[in-house]
Design goal:
single chain, two-stranded antiparallel sheet, 8 helices, about 60% helix, mainly alpha, 2 strands
Length: about 200
Amino acid sequence: MSQHNFLNKLIKVFLLVSMIGSLGFLMISGITTAISHLTTFQIAKTEPYKTEFIDEISVPAKKYGMEFQMFPSIIIAQAILESDWGRSQLSRESNNLFGIKASEDDQHVVLPTQEFQDGKMQTEEAAFKIYDSLDDSILDHSYFLTGQTYQAAIAAKDYQAAAKAIQNGGYATDPDYSDKLISIIKEYKLDVYDTTHSP
C-alpha cells in the first residue's frame, strides 16, 4: 500500500471516529435536556400550587423590587418561606405573606409563631398585620426593607449578599434564614426575575 493511500484511509477513519463522537455527544446532550424538562414538568404537575404562587406574586415583586431597589428573587423567596407558598393561615386569611408584625394602631390578628431563642425553637403568640391584598403585603414588605437596618441589603450586588444582609439586619431569628432564602432562589431559579434590578 502506498503512503498516499495509507494517509487517505487514516484520514477517513479519523473523520468517521469524529462523526461518531459528535453524534454520541449530541445524543447524550439531548437525553440530559429531555430528562431536565421532564423533571420540571413533573414538579409542575405534582405541585402546581408552587408555579401558581410564583406567577401570582412575581409581577408585584418585580414592580416593587424596582421601585425600592430590592432583588425580586429575595421578595419571592421570602414570601415562599414565610407563608409556605401562600398556604399559611396568616397569608390565606390576612394576606400577610411575610410575617410582618403589627404596631399598636394596625389592624391585626394574633396567632402563634415560632421563634429561635437561645438556639432553640419556641412557640409564642404575636400580633400580625392584616392587609387588603397580597399586593399591599408585598408593597409594605418592600417599604419595610428600606429601614436603616436593611441598607446593606439594598446596596447588595447580588441576591446572596442581600439574603445575608436581611438576616444580619434582624429580620428573622432563624440562624439559617439566609441559607434557606438562597436555597429557594437556586432551586426555583428565581434570579431570572432579577434582570431589571440595578443596585
